[in-house]
Amino acid sequence: MSAELSRNINIKEPRWDQGTFMGRAQHFFMVTDPRTVLLSSESLDEARVIVENYRAGIVKPGLTEDELWKAKYVYDSAFHPDTGEKMFVIGRMSAQVPMNMSITGCMLTFYRTTPAVVFWQWVNQSFNAVVNYTNRSGDAPMTVNQLGVAYVSATTGAVVTALGLKSLAARLPPIASRFVPFAAVAAANCINIPFMRQRELKYGIPVTDENGNRLGESANAAKQAIIQVVVSRIGMAVPAMAIPPVIMNALEKRAFMKRFPLLNAPVQVGLVGLCLVFATPLCCALFPQKSSMSVSGLEADLQERIRKASPETTKVYFNKGL
């Protein structure tokens, strides 16, 4: 049976063409599938064994191509692409929908008082810090001290930004004040992600040629990667934080919502979840996971090293993170 499965399937790359938006969207619908969060450690390890064995030329008897791809996507959902380490469960992209729908729903529901804004922004930015660290690019470790400084800087900056925007909202119409959480999240992402990935900006991330041969580390590549991730994260927040406020503003005027005000939070969470199911993979797909840039865009010393070691290389590739 094992002879029936080709040994030439390239599972190092996604199943679908990453040169197109639709191909990337199909890929990320699999990677962000929240059902994989529920898989046991045994299931994850089994998928890892199947993938690593296949890469080594060992095929499990009776394994089909669909089973191989399923194992590959389970593996990708739980293990870091650069380090190979099993990622912290709530930091995985597959946990984005259930975690974000709960946190974002509460942020949109409890936005009227300063303590509520501080608490839910802190919860949100703490979660984002975990996600940003878990999905960082590169394989260089961060010390506990570096991680602590990054976390405090990121969460403090984000919460202060949210409070500043809330004070401005006091002079806005009620419907406009509902969008304050989105503005705060968008601004906070611009602070949180660079802080949590500041080591990459300082020391660079690994860049390779088209065959995966490591050529060095580039801070310029890290800048491009982080900008792309910030844009994607803000894009993820747009539907979930812009559409529910409009719907809830209309629903709260209805008699049944006035009679049952406790429905506010669960309805809001449900609306956010519906938006995130589609926004998360589609916004991850805005840019290829394996990003690229011209050699001429790298640091001068790295350009020189690449030209000496691999003169035919004109473009480098790197994992942008998520």
From TrEMBL:
Membrane topology type: Multi-pass membrane protein
Spans through the membrane: 149-169, 175-195, 225-247, 267-287
Catalytic activity: L-serine(in) = L-serine(out)
GO cellular component: mitochondrial inner membrane
GO molecular function: monoatomic ion transmembrane transporter activity
Subcellular location: Mitochondrion membrane
InterPro entries: Mtc
BP-aspect Gene Ontology terms: serine import into mitochondrion
Main location: mitochondrion
Keywords: Amino-acid transport, Membrane, Mitochondrion, Transmembrane, Transmembrane helix, Transport
PANTHER family: SIDEROFLEXIN, SIDEROFLEXIN-3
Function field: Mitochondrial serine transporter that mediates transport of serine into mitochondria, an important step of the one-carbon metabolism pathway. Mitochondrial serine is converted to glycine and formate, which then exits to the cytosol where it is used to generate the charged folates that serve as one-carbon donors.
Record family assignment: Belongs to the sideroflexin family.
Protein name per UniProt: Sidoreflexin
Organism: Labrus bergylta (ballan wrasse)
